[in-house]
Write a structure and sequence with these properties.
about 220 residues; mainly beta
């Protein structure tokens, strides 16, 4: 099973409220499955949700890392799309790059300051749906600083997870932030101020009787 994508949710709302929508491959079965998803609360699937960040390194090349193991919820009410919301927290200690030494450095005070600010958070404040795309406005908190951000989101898929029989939704979302807005000023301008965020998020219904995915699925699930 492919990793389901991202913190975005509004495109699913447009499906649930009968708006026309194109799935990843124009799959009518995916659209039907999304339409059939029940209203309610969906929990983040931490094993299949990532916040990827890309930053310019010394003006030479882009460099990418990620945050994993988030927690949080997505709430969908097809009868009242404006009331939908998403609230995600992600542990700073789980920042990951290709270098263990860099991972440790990013947790230091001059970057994310994990000792004093162990979590990042995104909480939606407004959702706008336009055809097959959605705009999610919300507050992003890093290093104790909260700033508004705008996510551009698309639906990736909707299905019952065959491994645990949970109804599931997946999304992709993108945005850009200026790290200096959050007090992360180390090595400017050698390390770029602008940071691209690419979010891949999966959510599973929480009212099913089977346990939520605890991250123990084997590779390829």
């Amino acid at each position: 099973m492919r990793v389901l994508a991202p913190l975005a949710l509004s495109v699913a709302l447009s499906v649930l409220t009968a708006s026309p929508l194109l799935a990843q491959d124009g799959d009518n079965d995916t659209l039907a499955a999304a339409t059939a998803m029940p209203a309610g609360t969906y929990a983040v699937d931490p094993a299949h949700t990532l916040v990827n960040f890309t930053i310019g390194h010394l003006g030479i090349s882009p460099f990418t890392g990620q945050f994993g193991n988030p927690a949080g919820t997505l709430t969908i009410d097809p009868a009242d799309p404006s009331a939908a919301s998403v609230d995600i927290v992600f542990p700073i200690a789980d920042v990951s790059t290709t270098s263990a030494r860099l991972d440790e450095h990013l947790q230091a005070e001059e970057f994310f300051d994990a000792a004093n600010h162990p979590e990042g958070r995104f909480a939606s404040t407004a959702i706008t749906v336009d055809g097959d795309r959605a705009t999610i406005t919300g507050d992003l908190t890093l290093r104790g600083v909260t700033k508004p951000v705008v996510l551009q989101a698309t639906l990736y898929g909707a299905a019952e997870n065959p491994l645990n029989q949970r109804k599931s939704l997946g999304f992709s979302a993108t945005t850009e932030v200026m790290r200096s807005d959050f007090g992360i000023n180390a090595y400017l301008p050698a390390l770029a101020d602008r940071v691209e965020l690419n979010i891949e998020a999966a959510f599973e219904a929480v009212d099913d009787e089977v346990p939520a995915n605890d991250g123990t699925e084997t590779a390829g699930n």
